[in-house]
Write a structure and sequence with these properties.
With 336 residues, the protein is an alpha/beta fold. The chain has 3 domains: 7-114 and 187-223 and 299-335, P-loop containing nucleotide triphosphate hydrolases (Rossmann fold); 123-181, Histone, subunit A (Orthogonal Bundle), CATH 1.10.20; 225-297, Crystal structure of tRNA isopentenylpyrophosphate transferase (bh2366) domain (Helix Hairpins), CATH 1.10.287.890. It has helices at residues 18-29, 54-59, 76-92, 104-111, 123-136, 140-148, 150-155, 161-174, 178-182, 224-240, 243-252, 271-274, 280-303, 317-330, and strands at residues 7-11, 31-35, 62-63, 96-100, 189-191, 199-201, 214-221, 309-312. The chain is globular.
Length: 336
């Protein structure tokens, strides 16, 4: 391995097996995992987010899990600030940092040092936009976004109303498209001069005094049918482990189902059942459908970034971890 370990990104669609592979790699490399998941940051959202088990947390240090309450508005800027600092701190101790998760924008915020627009939430505007979507029908706000920010509209699914509203909010508050603001700072990682295609650190990072010289980006994949089977099996396991009771407990504690934390998979689909507006069968069918759609969007997001090396996750985690470790060893500058 390098005298200074690289930052290793392990991404991929939901249920592909990122956690198990990351644990295996971290054990091999004395690494620490920085979660890149927009829901595991919330305390109390345990079963529906498939958080690492207590045994996993004890075996390998994890960061950015349970750092916010369900009622908090945890922003992309919050994540970037905390994750960048964690990566730098891990690196200063001479250990490998593994950025692991399926939230592609979280990963880009750290790897590319995105310039994230500073626009505080405007709750009045958001309520107005939500009402506009309700009255105008699904897709109303997405069509408006396409007019003012075609790039953002192309990246955001029309059904992801929360992200559409945020993009419109930024445009309203700053007068600039969110896509342009996110491109406002050159990427922190640039191609290596030696033509290897390996990303290199090309500039300073907010809130960090030291970051790895190299970043290796891996995405796990599976045959689509096998992945869908894994998704269904995981949903069954979550339900058997008490997911419905977890949703009910969060609502009983007074958390609104409209909060960003409860708009995640496994929560927004089960809220109508807990509230008596839908049968359990209907809620589960919706959860299976939404999770498959989310996996498709993740595939699309990660495949659009040529820096990812795609690795078949249809093998035991230790075998996949060995392949990743061997790849990093071959490409280490110290071996060339």
């Amino acid at each position: 391995m390098d005298p200074e370990p690289p930052l290793l990104v392990i991404a991929g669609p939901t249920a592909v097996g990122k956690t198990a592979v990351a644990l295996a790699v971290a054990r091999r490399a004395s690494g620490e995992i920085v979660s890149a998941d927009s829901r595991t940051v919330y305390r109390g959202l345990d079963i529906g987010t498939s958080k690492p088990s207590p045994a996993d947390l004890e075996a390998v240090p994890h960061h950015l899990i349970d750092v916010a309450d369900p009622g908090d508005i945890f922003t992309l800027a919050d994540y970037q600030r905390l994750a960048t600092a964690r990566v730098a701190e891990i690196c200063r101790r001479g250990r490998m940092a593994l950025l692991v998760g399926g939230t592609g924008l979280y990963i880009r915020a750290v790897v590319d040092g995105l310039s994230i627009p500073v626009a505080k939430p405007d709750w009045v505007l958001r309520a107005h936009l939500e009402e506009e979507e309700r009255l105008g029908g699904a897709g109303t706000l997405h069509r408006r976004l396409a007019v003012v920010d075609a790039d953002a509209a192309a990246r955001i699914h029309p059904h992801n109303v929360r992200r559409v509203i945020r993009a419109l909010e930024v445009y309203h508050r700053t007068g600039m498209p969110i896509s342009a603001l996110q491109r406002g700072v050159p990427p922190r990682l640039a191609p290596a001069a030696d033509g290897s295609g390996q990303a290199r650190c090309a500039g300073p990072v907010p809130s960090a005094q030291h970051v790895p010289r190299r970043t290796v980006m891996v995405a796990l994949t599976l045959d689509r049918g096998i992945l869908y089977e894994r998704i269904d099996r995981r949903i069954d396991e979550q339900l058997a482990s008490g997911l419905i009771d977890e949703v009910r407990r969060l609502l009983d504690l007074g958390y609104s189902p409209d909060l960003p934390s409860l708009q995640g998979l496994g929560y927004k689909e089960l809220v109508p059942y807990v509230a008596g507006r839908m049968t359990l069968g209907e809620a589960i069918a919706r959860l299976r459908r939404d999770t498959r759609r989310y996996a498709k969007r993740q595939w699309t997001w990660f495949r659009a970034d040529a820096r990812y090396r795609w690795i078949d996750a249809g093998r035991p985690p230790e075998v996949v971890a060995a392949e990743i470790s061997a790849m990093m060893e071959r490409e280490s500058p110290s071996t060339t």
